[in-house]
Amino acid sequence: MKIAFTMDDLPLWPQSYPPAGYSAEGIVKSIRLALRENGIKGVYSFSNSWPLDKHPEMSVILDDWVADGHHIANHTHSHIELPDVSAEDFMADIDTAEHKLSRWVSQAPMKLFRHPLCHWGETEDKLREVNAHLELRGLTPVDVTSWAYEWTWNRAYRNAMDANDMGAMAFVRETFLEFSVAQLRHDMKTAQAWFGAEIVGITLGHNVPFYADVACDYFACLKEAGAEFVPLEDALRGPVQSAVGTVVSSEFLVLQQKLASASGHPIRKLPNDQRDLHARITEMAVGQSG
Ligand SMILES: [Zn+2]
To answer: What topology does CATH give the domain 2-284?
Structure first.
C-alpha cells in the first residue's frame, strides 16, 4: 500500500484549544518527532492562517514544521466550509490565507490547496467558480482517499482523561491502532475498485492531543501492516488527482466516496468488522466538543 501522508489544520485545530497538559506547539512537536522516528519526510500541512492573527507566537509551529523538511499549503484563512458561504467569500478567504501564509507556502515545492472538510462545492456554479479561482491562483486542490476518524477517538480520549480513567484511555489508544489499519485497507480497496487500478493513497492526520500521543505507534503500525510512505507528488499523478473537484458534494466524504455517491452507488465508509468498535468509540466521545 503506497500512501502519501498529509496533515490538516496546523497551527491550531479549529474546533478547540488544547486541554491542560497540552499545547498547540507541543502537539505538533510530538507529531514531528513521530514522523522523524518513522522516516516520513516532506509532509504537506494544509494550514489555516486565522490562529496567526490571534496568536502570532504560533508562527513558530509553522517555522519548525518547515525546518524539519515538511511543507505548508493553503487550507483557507478561517477554515470556512464552502456550503456555508458564497463562492466569493470562500475565494477571498483562500486569498487571505495565501497572503498570510506566504512566508511558508513560498518555500514549498508545490502550491497546493485543500478544501475544509473536503467539500468541493454543493452546486455546479460554486464548484466551477472555486475551481477556476484555484487555477487562476496556481493552486492544485488535493483531496484525501483515507482518514482514520482520529477526531472521534480524540473526543473519547479527552472524556477518559477528564474522568481520570486510565483503562479507558488505554482502550482508546489500542483500539485506534487496530481500527486505523483496517480503515486504511478498506479505503485503499474501495479506491482501487473505483479507479480500476493500483493507486497511491492520500491519508490525513490532525493536530489533536490524542494524535500527538499515538502518532509514533500509529505510523509504526501502518508500516508493519505494509504501508509504504511516499511523497505527495507521487499521489498527484494519475486518475485520483484528475477526479478532484469533478462532482458537486456537500458531504464529509473521502474522494472515492464522493465520486461513488454522485454516481448513485455509495461506498461503505467503514469496514464491516470495525463498525461496532467505531460506534462504541462514538458513544465514549459524547459530550466532548473538542
Ligand atoms: Zn481542516
So the answer is: TIM Barrel (3.20.20)
